[in-house]
Design goal:
Keywords: Iron, Metal-binding, Oxidoreductase. Belongs to the iron/ascorbate-dependent oxidoreductase family. This is Fe2OG dioxygenase domain-containing protein. By secondary structure, this protein is of the alpha+beta class. It has nine helices and 14 strands. It has an eight-stranded mixed beta sheet with strand order 1-2-10-7-12-5-4-3. A hairpin with a 3-residue loop joins β8 and β9. 40% of the residues are buried.
Length: 360
């Protein structure tokens, strides 16, 4: 079922030694490494030769949200574009989304400042606890990813100011409020794209919880040997990503072609998560994606995840009954958000989809 391979004793000891430094990948770069440690070596991806950087035929849709509330005609046009992108790609970019450019600039700057502050300050926040309000850590995968990450839980229980690092104390809650508002609009459009009441997905609890990950991808001396983020799909309902100008995000298209998601000034990348694919009974697609390591850096991105909560919940999620029929029976068993996320983290970023485990 795609459980992460067992690490050898030598690998475990090397990983522990790296972990104990609490310095992250940036610590390696600051130390002047010219060869990346074997812990970060990834086996060649079977689709790497199919990569189509710069391909003009396959372009992730860019959807302009201007006028979404100006009348039924314009809104329906946007809904159709969202539906097509969600069914075909599972990815799209949005512009004119209502979040001021200065807010986007400030959150990128805040993430950068957090990761570039004094190591002794960051060490105080280093944790593997997924339940923490704010924590600085690395994601696990069979080979480590060339990036450092912090996690901040924004909703349903907003953090107290004193729980947040001073360098991003003001901008994180402000950015979270803007992302929550945009997320609710997107869930309305997605509900309408399914032929449902605009509030259907929101009423199910899809916008109940929100967490932000602040990613920092240092320049890599040997980018062909590793990845910024391993191939995976997201374990949530919906993800809204802000990426800086450097690029490196790729989406797997038709199971055999990597398509670049180019940075567009002022745009946000939106992608369908596993749980939305599950409740739409495969109508919407949770696409696998990855981030390349770059010679240029650091690359900064902020990924905002909509899921019910990191706290254990017993609320079941299964295929939406209004979408089912004799010809379209349920393809997944019911699960809770907590069960799905627990399985996802136990499996690790091993390049396989956690959805397979929940198929009927």
């Amino acid at each position: 079922m795609g459980i992460t391979r067992k690490l050898e004793p030598k690998e475990l000891s090397e990983r522990k030694a790296f972990d104990d430094t609490k310095a992250g990948v940036k610590g390696l770069v600051d130390a002047g490494v010219t060869k990346i440690p074997p812990l970060f070596h990834h086996p060649p991806d079977q689709f790497v030769q199919a990569s189509t950087l710069g391909d003009t035929e396959h372009v992730i849709p860019i959807i302009d949200l201007i006028g979404v509330d100006k009348g039924p005609g314009k809104r329906q046009e946007i809904v159709e574009r969202v539906r097509e992108a969600s069914e075909t790609w599972g990815f799209f970019q949005v512009v004119n989304h209502g979040i001021p450019l200065h807010v986007l600039d400030e959150i990128i700057d805040g993430v950068r400042k957090f990761h570039e502050q004094d190591l002794e300050v960051k060490k105080e926040l280093y944790t593997h606890d997924q339940m923490t309000t704010f924590g600085y850590d690395l994601y696990s995968s069979p080979a480590l990813n060339w990036r450092d990450t912090f996690l901040c839980c924004i909703a349903p229980n907003p953090p107290e100011p004193e729980d947040l690092p001073q360098v991003c104390r003001d901008i994180l809650p402000e950015y979270g409020k803007h992302i929550m508002k945009l997320g609710i609009l997107l869930f309305e459009l997605l509900s309408e794209a399914l032929g449902l009441n605009p509030n259907h997905l929101k009423d199910m609890g899809c916008a109940e919880g929100l967490s932000a990950l602040g990613h920092y991808y240092p320049a890599c001396p040997e980018p062909d040997l590793t990845l910024g983020t391993t191939k995976h799909s997201d374990n949530d309902f919906l993800t809204i990503l802000l990426q800086d100008h450097i690029g490196g995000l790729q989406v797997l298209y038709n199971n055999n072609t990597w398509i670049h998601v180019p940075p567009v000034p002022g745009a946000l990348v939106v992608n369908i998560g596993d749980l939305l694919q599950l409740i739409t009974n495969n109508k919407f697609k949770s696409a696998e994606h990855r981030v390349l390591a770059n010679l240029e850096g650091p690359r900064i991105s902020v990924a905002s995840f909509f899921c019910t909560s990191l706290e254990a919940t017993s609320k079941p999620y299964g295929p939406i009954k209004e979408l089912l029929s004799k010809d379209n029976p349920p393809k997944y068993r019911e699960t809770t958000d907590a069960e799905y996320i627990a399985y996802f983290h136990a499996k690790g970023l091993d390049g396989t989809s956690a959805l397979t485990h929940f198929r009927i």
